[in-house]
Amino acid sequence: MSALVIENVSRIFPGVRRGAATRALEPTSLEVPDNDFVTILGPSGCGKSTLLRLVAGLDRPTTGRIILNGKPVIGPGPDRGMVFQSYTLFPWLTVADNIAFGLREKGVAKEQRGDAVREWLGRIGLTGFEHHYPKQLSGGMQQRTAIARALANEPAILLLDEPFGALDNQTRALMQELLLRVWERERKTVLFVTHDIEEAIFLGSRVLVMTARPGRIKAEVTVDLPHPRHYTIKTSPEFSALKARLTEEIRVEAVLAAENAAGAA
Amino acid sequence: MKPLAPISPTARVALGILFFVLFVAAWSFATLGGYVSKTFLADPLTMVEEGYDLLTKHGFLRDIGITIWRVLGGFTLAALVAVPLGITMGAYKPIEAFLEPFVSFARYLPASAFIPLLILWAGLGELQKLLVIFIGSVFQLVLMVAVAVAGVRRDLVEAAMTLGARDRGIIARVLIPASAPDIAEILRLVLGWAWTYVIVAELIGSSSGIGHMIIDSQALLATGQIIFGIIVIGIIGLISDFLFKWANRRLFPWSLA
To answer: What is the CATH number of the domain that holds A59?
Structure first.
């Protein structure tokens, strides 16, 4: 059974001040089975974030519908955890209180929240930082906490919108490994949006390539690399072959996107 | 000096004090040097002398107490109404659309112009003084609080929604804590304005308070007393500002580095 079903979902943003409407997402259909890790790869402005926001329920589709575990998505909810590219930890809460936020909203008792927080602090390697405020953390630590905050809530699916986009390369590589370890353990259904080809291959079991605006899924590439994946896999021939193929796919779109931008200007 | 280059804390304090010293020096030079008539402007020494007399012989401390009480009373009432209303307006756009135009209009009605009406309605008692301050502060507070709440980062609200927060949770656990430091800063700012309203209220139809003492001193041409009264207001303002800043640092450690 597919956990997440996306049926003919499109999103058109109406024009501002009689300007032309923006077709952010062409009608898109997609099925994501339970425990799948799908990465969505595309150039900036291809509507990949729009698709993720529609699944999160933060935006409504112009056409089509989204169904999660048999229930239509009509708004945001705790069954779809989300990690944003921008740092969205609540700055007035400590790391521990941030992780416990969703559980608190659910009405989980304090002791159980404490247990969940301790467990997640360990998994993301931030034991000892529970009383720190987000401002006292590095970007990587903040995003690790954001992942823990989303997963502590036990969502059916985890949505990640370029969560490591603002991090430096070394930190980003470490974060990918951490996320992969968490996933190999939890086997959550994951939808991960990125513009980084290596990241898309390293993390995903499937890579969906999106076209430049108007966005649509152009190709689907299965990543047959075994788990657990070690970072050394990035230099394997299989990895390189996938990378070469996706580079080709994405390059065409990036050129198109650049031309579109030039034409619009 | 280079643009935006920082200075040491010692230099900052020293420069701040230096201006006060220069100010008093210029004042002393103008008055004690005989360049300005004593009738119009008392010299610093006379001011201190008359101020001492006020405090010891004329019960000025009681006037100060009454004025502080009026400011805090009227301002607290205004904050009790304005902060919840501003939060509601900031959170719910229809309520904002309903109230914002009127509040923007009312904000420009000068509180001092209401004094004759308020005397008619509430007499010369304490209620009238409180109402002047209330009218002077409440509309400003409502608008500024509404803007602060509406300006909360949208991605924080969205993050809370994906964590299962509903409307009440978003207001109570995202909008209010996120805008709390801004609201505290707004209260500090508007409290300063409330001080000008209280003095105006006391200048007209009052028998006590700092403003009353000032208008009495005018009849006696006691410019030293007037200046002393003004300086007392300034010092109280400085203290309240300091207390607010200190409280904000204690209450919202997360908003600073």
So the answer is: 3.40.50.300
